[in-house]
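Quick one, T. Sequence first:
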Amino acid sequence: MQALSSFDDAHHQEFLQQGYLRLGKVLSADGLRALQQRIDDIMLGRVKYQNMRLQLCEENGNLRRTMGNEVASLAYRRIDDLEQDPLFLAYIQNSLFRQIAQRYIGGQVSVFRSMFMNKPPEISQALRWHQDVGVGWGIDTNPITTVWTALDDATVATGCMQIVPGSNRHGIINEKHFLPEDEQDRYAPAEKVIELEAEAGEAILLHNFLLHCSGTNSTTTPRRAFSVTYMNAETHTLDTGQTFPVVFGAQALDPATVDGKPAELIEKFYG
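Structure tokens:
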């Protein structure tokens, strides 16, 4: 699917009604290869950022959080703080994403998290039904706009996302994100669930209240993705009052000059 050239009223209505919108192949073939190579280089320690939070999926299934790359491995489950990397920052600031952010947020936009998500072959984990609720993340607002981009083909076999279209219209079901098992039949009945397969390079706009989950990767290849949540730049953490990196508006980060991330912004694992 060709990338949308603009975000119009019809797209707005579909997004609010369904809770998601396919944006098409926003990444060109060259752009996709560049981000694939860069995330592999970060995982293998060829490109290093001291103030970057990572989660390594170990062979026994346990997750180990590290600050900076400690082990050269392609089995990292999650890498946060990618807005400090020039290639990923340039993608975050794509003009289509700017249109969407300005429509729902305004001129001053920050990112709560700009994270790589990985389902390595054989040792990946399933993720149960949940919403992405800001208060549950420890921030003082509830963002509604997340752009999720497939860095590999996301298929049923590789553990693609499953969603319940329109479930965003329930509002917040549980501030702690996860859907209680005794409410799954009510909010995520099997007949309403769809598999959200996507081609590498394709971006999907997700409403943060949309119920979603994912399975395990049963193949021999990884299922990598990049996810960015956009929000009002005045958003703070509930405990320390910390703000977040600005990507659109005054004092926004610039791919030409971005150089790491201040240590005070990565003291905790929010979200």
